[in-house]
Amino acid sequence: MDRRAIVLFGLPLIALHAAIPAAEPQGPRPTRALPPKWPKSVADVFFSDARAKLIGKRPNYPAVSSRDSHPVGPSTTEGSDLPAAATGEFAWSKLISPETIEDEIKSLQKQVSENVTTPANFKGGGFKAGRRHFTELALLFAIIAQYDGQVRWKDKSGGIRDLMGRAGQNCAVGTDASYNEARLRKEDLEQLVQGALTSAPAADPDARWDKIADRAPLMQRIEQAQQQGVAPWTANPGEFSKNASALLREAELISAVAETIQREGYSDSDDETYLGFARKMRDAAMEVAAAVRGKNYDAARAASGNIEKACSGCHEQFRS
Question: Which of 95, 101, 295, 307 could cross-link to 284 by cystine, CB 3.0-4.6 Å?
Fold first, then answer.
């Protein structure tokens, strides 16, 4: 058959097919409400096309950097490759729970009380433990100040953060001055935990993560959590089950610290290799925490190994 004949023959079929309505769905039609009919007095309040009345170009809001230059504070939006909270602030709740924060602060309060005893003991080496403890406390109170949810001591967190951060800095050496400050912070912590601390100094609005909490003591805390907690508690199913609560806390602490040391100002925070190790460590710690909640030993063990790999890789190329 001639090609033109085929085309002419097919056109009526196409037209016929287009004219046939689609099959109606089976069953009764759902009942829908009629659209409202607004009176003229209401309709006249609104523009028919609001865009025609706007002046100037539409704003182009830039994306927030994952390590922006904003200071630490309750209204700071700290970006990350993790999603933000509903408030627009960094979603710390995805990394660490209020229970872990509170339990760790109470634990550190006891450790400080045991460590800050006499000037002689403090100068003899106690200042080194004090530096680790106060630095971690400063980090935890900085997180509380930004936390996207309710956490105990939030109303005083900014001022306490600054006090603990300064004590941590000064505990780099063991002197009479650093001991006296550590003793005062010990008393503050005791009153805080007991609910007797009625006030705290105003928070420094220009405080920065790297100035609040030195990286070296934070890295020591990660090493302690991994080697003394996560690794042995994921060595076999028995240890995993027996230490589930403690394992969850240590994993959440690792993830929070690994997130913090990516912030602008910390050494190597502009190095993508370093940031890659920090993110892998954070994500692996989050996987350990998720595995604990899901009672999945195999997943926890695998994630623990990934924390170890990230730590080893980072130590080979970077130093605190």
Answer: 307
